Amino acid sequence: MEANKPVTTTTEQPQPIRCKAAVCRKPGEPLIIEEIVVAPPMPREARIRIICTSLCHSDITYWKMQELPAIFPRILGHEAIGVVESVGEDVTEITKGDIVIPIFIADCEECIDCKSTKSNLCSNFPFKISPWMLRYANTTRFTDLNGEIIHHFMFASSFSEYTVVDIANLLKIDPTIPPNRACLLSCGVSTGVGAAWKTANVEAGSTVAIFGLGCIGLAVAEGARLCGATRIIGVDIRPEKFDIGKKFGVTDFINSGECGNKSVSQIIIEMTGGGADYCFECVGMASLVHEAYASCRKGWGKTIVLGVDKPESMLSLNCNGVLVQGKTLMGSLYGGLKPKSDVPILLKRYMDKELKLDEFVTHEVEFKDINKAFDLLVKGECLRCVIWMDK
Fold first, then answer.
1. Gene3D superfamilies given for it (predicted)?
2. pLDDT given at position 73
3. How many whole angstroms separate alpha carbon 189 and alpha carbon 197?
4. Per residue, what are the HEC states of 186-251?
5. Residue 21 to residue 161: CA distance in whole angstroms
6. 218 burial type by CB count under 10 A (0-12 exposed, 13-18 middle, 19+ buried)
7. Which residues of the chain have pLDDT under 70?
8. What is the end-to-end Cα distance of the chain in Å, rounded?
9. At 107, phi and psi to the nearest 5?
10. Helix (H) or strand (E) holding 51
C-alpha cells in the first residue's frame, strides 16, 4: 500500500488508509513517526485528514505518565483542524470535504445536559481519558503494520495524518478561518476564555486573579479582558510572564517566588481591599487551589479550578470557614463551553478582531519535527506550537 492512499477495492465504502503518525511507544521518550493503518469510520464517526495540530500540556502530561490512565502505544494530540475524508453510516451533520475541529468533550445535542444552558457535561458520553472510541468500547481505529493495536487519546489522536473521530466530538467550521488559529480552540484557549466568560461570568469592572500564566492562564486573562474586568492580576514564578501577559490584559503581576514573609493571598487581599472577585487556578496544584480560594473576596468571591493535579490529590477546607465566608469553589471542564454552540461565537469574535488568537502561536514546525515542539513546551519556551502535517 502506498502511504496516504486507500486500499483499492471495487466497493465505494471507505477502506483502510495507510499513513504516517507520531506514535508514543514509551513514556517520556521521543515520538516515533511510523506508518500505520487507519480503519474506516463506524456509524456516527468520521475519518479526518489532519491539516495542522497544536501541542497542549495535557499531551505532555500523558506522554510522561507511566501508570494508568496512561497506556502505550498511543497516538496523542487533541488540538487540531482537519478535512473530512469519509463518514460512517448515519452521519448527516457533516460530509466529505467539510472543515472540522475535534473537541475532547462530547456534545451530543440530545441529552438533558447538552440541551440545558447550565452544563456542558454530556450525560450520554461523559468525558474520560479513554484509549478507545467514544461509543464503541474497547475498539480502536489504529493498527501498526504488524497488526498490533495503537490506542487513542482524548477521542482525537491528532498526531496522525488521518484519524477517526466520533460525530459528537466534531464541530464543522467556516473554511475561511486560518487553520493554525482555529485549531487552538480545540482545548487550551477555549478553556481559559470560556472559564472567564461562561463559568465565572466575569462582570465588567471586576477584579480577577490568575494563578499560572501559561497558555490557559493567559487565555483566562483574554476572556476576562473581553468581559470588561478592570484589574487582572497574574501570579507566576517567572517575571517575564508579565510582559507576555500585558498583551492579554494582565494589569498587575505577583512573583510568587519573591513574596517574602507574606503569602500570595495576603498580598492579593491587600492589593484589592479584601480579595479578588474571581480567582482562577491554572497550574494543577492543590496548594494553589487553596491559595486561590484564600485570595477571593468573602461573600461573592468565586474560585475556578482549571489546572489538572494528580488523581490522588485532595483539597482540605475548613467547614466553618466555608460557611462563614460564603465563597464559591468550582471546576471548569473546557471552560464550561458547549462546543457546538459556543465555539462558533469565539471563532466569529476572532474573525471580527475582538478575540486574540495570533499571539498564542509562538512557534510552528513541520510534522517531522514534532519532537521539537515537545522540547519547546517542556522547557517553557512557547505558548502554542503549531505542527503542520503537510508542510
1. Medium-chain alcohol dehydrogenases, catalytic domain, NAD(P)-binding Rossmann-like Domain
2. 98
3. 12
4. HCHHHHHHHHHHHHCCCCCCCEEEEECCCHHHHHHHHHHHHHCCCEEEEEECCCHHHHHHHCCCCC
5. 6
6. buried
7. 1-11
8. 22
9. -140, 85
10. strand 45-54
